[in-house]
């Protein structure tokens, strides 16, 4: 059985059905109650709700588990604590393989979430647990497109000319399934994962415009406005100060440096060309139009 943490997040909702299709039983771990039925419908065999930094919760979650895919909740104030605890309890309980979802260029420690993940990587490497570390670039997210489909404006909080590497979460999930199916081949590996290319805000706006067939403006917004496109009011009440710190660091770093990578490793692992940004936009635009048609 495989344990997936942060199971109802952007990754988990894509990954769990793919793991089940590949024949794996999945235990889902979620910090807060309220999504258990949805997780079961996605294909989770069982769901555990509890604090992922609480080692007693982790011992229960890891009972009978041989493979863990650990996703640290994005911009969570206790992400580091959760990651370190997961490594310790995985070692204690004899987990056979811990796949850690880190980040491209975790060494860029001015980015708060990168430093957190770098610390977890180090702890994992020193733990003696069989590990695979995945270092994906920025996710291609519908939330990143913001309201561009409807409003005609694409928004980011940093210099609109800076470049960012990106990856489709479906490609990342496909890699995770491969890690679980062929795990011994990937013990001790650290993989940088990104699709071809790196894009400025203007590039992304132009790609959206090509797909939807209407002009897209590009606008630099405040850090707070950008952060609020990812989190709702309920999220704001839980760790908002830390989240704003994370997003301020992102704005500052991405405003000075390009976040670039290389697609060779992802291409090799997938055995095909990774999903391009434009292909992602086409897929999400079709879904957007279908949803609008239903309403």
Give a written overview of the molecule.
- The protein has helices at 12-21, 36-42, 55-62, 79-93, 112-125, 142-145, 148-151, 169-181, 201-212, 223-228, 233-236, 240-254, 264-270, 277-294; strands at residues 2-4, 26-30, 46-49, 67-71, 97-101, 131-136, 138-140, 153-156, 166-168, 189-193, 217-220.
- The protein has 295 residues and is of the alpha/beta class.
- The protein has a seven-stranded parallel beta sheet with strand order 3-2-1-4-5-6-10, sandwiched between helices. The protein has a two-stranded parallel sheet with strand order 7-9. Strands 8-11 form a two-stranded parallel sheet.
- β4 (67-71), α4 (79-93) and β5 form a beta-alpha-beta unit.
- α4 packs parallel to α5 (112-125) and α9 packs across α14 (277-294).
- The chain is globular, with a radius of gyration of 19 Å.
Radius of gyration: 19 Å
Distance between the termini: 39 Å
- The neighbouring-strand order within the major sheet is 3-2-1-4-5-6-10
Which segments are poorly predicted (pLDDT under 50) over 5 or more consecutive residues?
233-237
By DSSP (H or I, 4+ residues per run), the number of helices equals: 14
Main beta-sheet annotation:
7 strands, parallel
Structural class based on helices, strands and sheet pairing: alpha/beta
How many strand segments? 11
Q: Element order, helices and strands? A: EHEHEHEHEHEEHHEEHEHEHHHHH
Percent of residues in β-strands: 15-25%
The helical percent reads 40-55%
> What's the average pLDDT?
93
Query: What general outline do the C-alpha atoms trace?
Result: globular
